[in-house]
Design a protein that fits this description.
mainly alpha, two-stranded antiparallel sheet, 2 strands, about 5% strand
Length: about 210
């Protein structure tokens, strides 16, 4: 599960904006290339994702890109990993509230950022490239970590059964949102987060109501 840092620039802004200076070495150069990589992927999909296209978007030479990344696949993994970081692990003292917070943040990621389009292209690339598939699996494991930490901690605190399979529970908690967005192409209704938490963990989420002013 991941958080997003906005990475795209609108086509109008690029047409009207100032020309970016040639990219130089260093951390700033690397970040500019990563932003450009996601812009290219978002606009042109996997077929248009090449080192040449990213170099043009970043106003860089291909030699600069190959200084950091050996292939377009390696660049794609790095761009996704740098932009969509795992969510911070909450600790409210109640497992159902912690999980609900993580799932709510995930829903925002699906609904309010380019993440779904980028992930779809990324998964497509991983299906075609075994090396990229391995890297994608590693990234996915890191994104699952916040939920696993919350569930493991809840078992230790006695909030969940000790025999709970936290890997399976994580799958069951997150999969309905993936299915809605990527397979059924249906909106995620209000209240779905709480319903999923209640069904999977058997614990109702209690929402604090704001006091009337």
């Amino acid at each position: 599960m991941s958080s997003a840092k906005p990475a795209s620039t609108s086509t109008r802004q690029r047409k009207q904006g100032e020309q970016r200076e040639p990219i130089s070495r260093g951390a700033g150069a690397r970040q500019r290339v990563l932003r450009a990589a996601l812009e290219v992927l978002d606009e042109h999909g996997l077929p248009g994702f090449t080192m040449e296209a990213v170099a043009r978007r970043a106003n860089a030479g291909k030699a600069t890109l190959y200084r950091y990344w050996q292939s377009a696949g390696a660049l794609l993994v790095d761009a996704m990993d740098a932009t969509f970081q795992p969510f911070p692990v909450p600790d409210t003292g109640r497992v159902e509230t912690d999980v609900a917070q993580l799932l709510t943040a995930f829903v925002r990621l699906l609904e309010e950022t380019p993440f779904p389009r980028l992930l779809a292209a990324f998964v497509d690339a991983a299906e075609r490239d075994p090396a990229l598939a391995t890297l994608h699996a590693d990234l996915t494991e890191r994104r699952r970590e916040p939920v696993l930490v919350v569930l493991d901690r809840a078992r230790e605190r006695g909030q969940l059964p000790g025999h709970l399979d936290v890997e399976l529970a994580t799958d069951l908690l997150t999969s309905p949102f993936f299915y809605r967005r990527f397979v059924a192409h249906r909106p995620i209704p209000e209240g779905m987060v709480d319903a999923v938490v209640a069904h999977v963990l058997g614990v109702e989420v209690v929402r604090r109501r704001s006091k009337p002013s």
